[in-house]
Design brief:
The chain is mainly beta and 449 residues long. It contains no helices and 34 strands. The N and C termini lie far apart (144 Å).
Amino acid sequence: MIKKIKYISILSIIGAVFVVGIALFFSNKITASSGDNIRGWIWSENVGWIGLNSVNCDSDGNHITDTGNYPQCPTGTPIVDYGVSVLQPAGSFSGYGWSENVGWVNFAPAGPYPSAPNYSACLDWPVSISASEPCNGSGNYAVSGWARVVSPVGQSATATGGWDGWIKLSGSNYGVSLNSLTGVFSGWAWGGDDSSEEAVLGWSKINGAGPGGGYSSYIPPVSYPVTATGLWAEQGNYCNPIGGSMYYPPWTLHWTFDGGGMNTQDKYQIAIDNNSATCSSPEITSDIVSSVGTPGPNYSLYVDPLNPSIHGSLSFNSNYYWCIKVWGSSGSVSEWINSSNYFSTASHRWPNASFVANPISVLPDRDVVFTNNTTCWNTAGSPVACSSYLWNFGDSATSSVTNPIHSYSTKGVYVVQLNATDGLGSCPASSNITVRPPLPSWEEVPPTF
């Protein structure tokens, strides 16, 4: 005889439920605790509410139910710790849920499993969070594997139940997934063993509006892992002096903050390493920098061994890896995330183009003397002659001599630019020359009578 399959709607697990009277049956047999990071409930037409964490109705953690989290919770009922977690960065689930009708639901049951996949419940984090969890490859933020109802009411959480209590979290045309922005689970699970069609739970819907008007099971923002993606380095312009011998920005580091549960980036920290992609022995480790509300900030570094930046300095003619750690607005913090690819600094400083014009205000057809004060460098950091110069006097005239002399035939303001070139590139300097109109001429004429 084919048994009729019942359907279960897990309508917004955030609604009110009871986790009432559990302490009457169990006092110290629960292996999960209220510190676990999944909240909410599952609703089943077959077995009723399944609580996923004791803190759903125990906001102050004193083991007495209250309405601090949800107004529909009962008050004054003794309760013991239990809960379900998704481990970071492994992605595997752990812990127990509780139903007053069927008892404990184990989210990390041991095999053998009724069918593939051959592992317990697992969340497939992106590679930027974990590259080697059991369900890796099932799809980013997809949930797969098995949970199991393990004990009738009155038995311990380690009991096996005595019936087919398997819950499959993904199949050919159904599955559970996590919204990476909100931290809310959604989708369908099947509560049966898929072979004899026996079903303790039947179909389970993991989203929708529940009694509290909220969502289904979810990971609170403080427990949601944050990460950074799209790490890359951009070479800047070495020709712009900002004081002393330092030039900016030789490199700008870019990344995108990725934080679910409505997290925004709160802080970040940078490490730079010349020999390890994991930044195990960094030459530079920045301070922890506040970046409240900034989704994708940039961080500029300075390359100048003669004038180190506040966090240290990079060397010329070197390869560097860089890593980042990010904090979410809810307090979540990532591990060190590496960029994989290195960036290469220039072999030496670029030219520091500079000149003086005398005079800077002159009459037409009078000489202006240009004194070239440009400095070029070699790989040892010593000043050397530049390879070439190109002057543009602003009146279509040019010169390639080191210290030219030039005159202007008509009044006006002329922008003079010098481009100094070495083996790396060319850097400019500029100044204005003002050519005044000629003085009026005069002649003494004797009076006439």
